[in-house]
Amino acid sequence: METFESLVQAEFAPKNTYLNTASTGLPPARAVDAMRVAVESAAAGRPTDMFADVEAARASFARLLGVPGRRVAAGASVAVHTALIATSLPEGAEVLTAEADFSSVVNPFHMRRDLKVRAVPLERIAESVRPGTVLVAVSAVQSADGRIAGLEAIREAARTHGARTYVDASQATAWLPLDADAYDYVSSVAFKWLLCPRGVSFLVVPEDLGALPPLFAGWVAGERPWDSCYGPVGELAHSARRFDESPALFSYAGARRSLELIEELGAENIGKHDLALAERFLAGLRALGHTPVPAPGSAIVSVPGLGHRQADLSRAGVEVSDRAGNLRAAFHLYNTPSDVDRLLDVLSA
Prior knowledge:
37% of the residues lie in helices and 15% in strands. It is an alpha/beta fold. Strands 2-8-7-6-5-3-4 form a seven-stranded mixed beta sheet, sandwiched between helices.
């Protein structure tokens, strides 16, 4: 029987100390192989059925987030998902966001000049929901520093005031437990913690499809796509597939296998692994006299004032990020305690 460690070792062999999953995750060997086969088959004139890969990836993501597959739309960008939600809001609607949240989560609302977009500190979102707030939009985990939103309190405050909720889970999927059914909309790119190729994202919508206008619906959004290739689509899909973008098929060929691995390893096991490494790094930082951004329970650790060390660390074979002046380290399933110790050793030099 394969263990967590043996599964990981069979899929990953990084040549450096890679602690930058919050920017881009490493694709597993099975995903790389699947993309290679898909490209070579297409070049040979015998393409594989990559639309089946899209459906398998959709179903896998739905299971990970605890919702039916019919509520999941497949796309390529969180910004596009956000824009779709933005177009559904009435003129003058108030959208509550977190200060300095990731631009893909907030900027599309600002592009509608007739909306009232209000930003407050992350810790104050729940208390800032008020009568007239139509939508609360927030990242489950902040990209810049790893802080985790108080989603349960935000959800309850939104319900009290009749507002809908939109959660971007791009920095949370695969390691932070998240019940997508508890929120109206949940989006996520898949090239970070889900280890998929770029060009893959998902949007969870309500059972009633959220009154979203399928403005960019093409033939893939038809109930019978191959009968929807010419002229107006006669019948839109009866599911969230009506919000699908035309998929980046080679990316989805790999995504199917990446998500398969995440399911095999188990999100709960991945979360425990990632958080144990983050705790090890936090202890080492304290020993070195550094104070990270408070983000309890996060797999992302950010250290103010050390962002300038990113280039030096990269030259030493340690990959992290410089975000908002912070050194940002992200710990995921292919990382080990020795990776943490290597980062601490270089920082102490």
